[in-house]
Sequence to fold (128 residues):
Amino acid sequence: MLANILFIEGTKIYKELLSEMFNRDTKFWIKIVENIEEAKNILDKIDLDIVVLDLILPDGRGEEIVKIIREEKKDDSIQIIVITSETSEDRIINAFNLGIDFYFEKPFNPNILKALIERIYEKKKREA
Fold:
């Protein structure tokens, strides 16, 4: 069983880091996009297990993707992880209210992110 993961990240250095961390791992199918439009395209085509996104994207706010997943698609099975440099307490609380599951502040520890994603994967595998 592969875990389908979508990373939505506009910053080049973080895109490279995420690619390096997950591309060699055969448990995961990953796609890295940098904006909301590309993310919407993937959401329409692929059944995802995990979405990792920034709240600050080149073409808008990451909350838009959270709303699409939780309100339009009515999908609570997708785990949503936010990794962002956004520090506004109100905005982060709002993101949790919209339905995110986890939050990391940039810069983040990639080993902790990988451990979290591995844990989500193992849990989903047991539930399948």
Notes: The mean pLDDT is 96. The first strand starts at residue 3 and ends at 8. The chain has five helices and seven strands.
